[in-house]
Amino acid sequence: MKLSGTREAGKADSWYEGDPEVLSSQLDGFLSDVPTSVNDAHLPISGAKVIIAPHAGYSYSGPCAAWAYKCLDLSKAKRIFLLGPSHTYYLRGCALTKFAQYATPFGDLTIDEPVVQKLRDTGKFQDMPTYNEVEEHSLEMHLPYIYKRITQTFSSRDEYPTLVPILIGDNKGPEEKQFGTLLAPYLQDPENVFVVSSDFCHWGDRFSYTVYAPGSDVNNLTSLTYRTRKPTDPPIHESIKLLDQLAIDAIASGRHDDFVDNLKKTKNTVCGRHPIGVTMAALEALAQDTSDADKYKFKFVQYQRSSLVEVFSDSSVSYASAYAIV
Q1: Largest interatomic CA distance in the chain
Q2: Which of 73, 100, 105, 136 has the lowest tally of Cβ within 10 angstroms?
Q3: Mind listing the pLDDT tens digit for each residue in 253-293?
Q4: pTM of this prediction exceeds 0.85
Q5: CA 201 to CA 171: how far, in whole Å?
Q6: Which Gene3D superfamilies match (predicted)?
């Protein structure tokens, strides 16, 4: 199948600045606010070829995403795999792009047609419906950051990495392992990097998720209702943080099953749980051949929320950034 056309930047001027000069200044500001070193390592972190970063509007999640992107090591990158969840239609399995280019306010990113075709030839992937692909913000919100970082890394357009966008659908744990095994060789290739798109807890009645840990006891979870008084032991935002920390700890464990079990227990609304799950499965497959404790496990460097929820009528979305060394 021949790729063709350009996916336009549909969220520009609504979810982020469409003016390239204004956007460039904003991203530079976010990145400059990140320290020059994390975990005793200078940024970017050598070998940090995988990141988790959020995909909300930049006014909400842009500062958090900057932590992941500043950690990302693009020095050897020839292609960037972008894994995101589907928000616009129900997807079971995984899906590939039909576009030849993805637009950003800074310029177009070229899709890696040979790799996309190789993945398509496995028979394991669907094609993204054009309308849904254009509307999918879990992919688009990463494109300006990707373009910004590759221009900071490479001096010539001829050196810019290509892009491999993949939508990861609503798959069960064993299916995530299968896709993880399929993608593991690409992850192991030193010329590939992976960007995993995910927000964390979406809390509030409008998200149909009002889980609360009374007394900070995560083994006694309940759901708040409009009849519930303003709880203070702990405040709701602290309970949300506890729920997210459980998910973060499960991801950082490097054990895919731990993350699947955590989500079964808490039902945490981590929208990129399946892209994270597939990537964890790939990392875990690679980790079987090493004893290096610093490799193949996510390390979290930032956690933020859109607001601090105090009463039932409030809502918030959580954001986290992490990297993994491969």
Answers
A1: 60
A2: 100
A3: 999 999 999 999 999 999 999 999 999 999 999 999 787 87
A4: yes
A5: 19
A6: LigB-like
